[in-house]
Amino acid sequence: MRSLFLSTAAGALLFASAAGTESAKVTGAAGANHKPGEDTKMIQTDRQNRNVAYDDAANGMYPESDILDEQVDADHYQMQVVENNENIRIIVLKDENGHAQYKSIFQKHRHLVKVIDFDQGMVFKGVIGT
Is 111 left (phi over 0), alpha (psi -120 to 50) or beta? Predict the structure, then answer.
């Protein structure tokens, strides 16, 4: 009974750790149809528009760009869009040394913007017009 529990727990842990990756290889037998040496994709995430160019955010392309400029003087930082899908957009602002200083989270359906200072915490939270 104990070995069954440990095997199940180990399998769940391996599955959960693979969930955060772009794809995973199955090294053991994946089932009756698995051919040795064949890679099997278990998980594939859909990250649209990941790592959009810095200039897109800096040029005011997004509704939250004005808020970022007002709250943190965004002109002094490099902006990088790290996630952009139908629900959310996350922009990270980095200093001249490449260290992340601020993060903007825009929930598109609610028009909610959060600006977070990595040292001080929440800087701004509010609904904006688009």
Answer: left
Rounded CA-CA distance 90/128 in Å is 16
Q: What is the mean pLDDT of residues 26-52?
A: 41
Distance CA 116, CA 121 (A): 5
> Beta strand 100-107 with 88-94: parallel, antiparallel or unpaired?
antiparallel
pLDDT for residue 82 is more than 80: yes
Q: What pLDDT was estimated at residue 37? A: 46
pTM of the model: 0.56
Planar angle of CA 47, 22, 15, nearest 5 degrees: 125
Task: List Cβ neighbours of 129 (8 Å cut-off, separation of 6 or more).
Answer: 63, 111
Quote the DSSP letter at residue 38: -
Mean pLDDT of the 117-128 span: 96
- Closest Cα to residue 55, out of 73, 33, 75, 37? 75
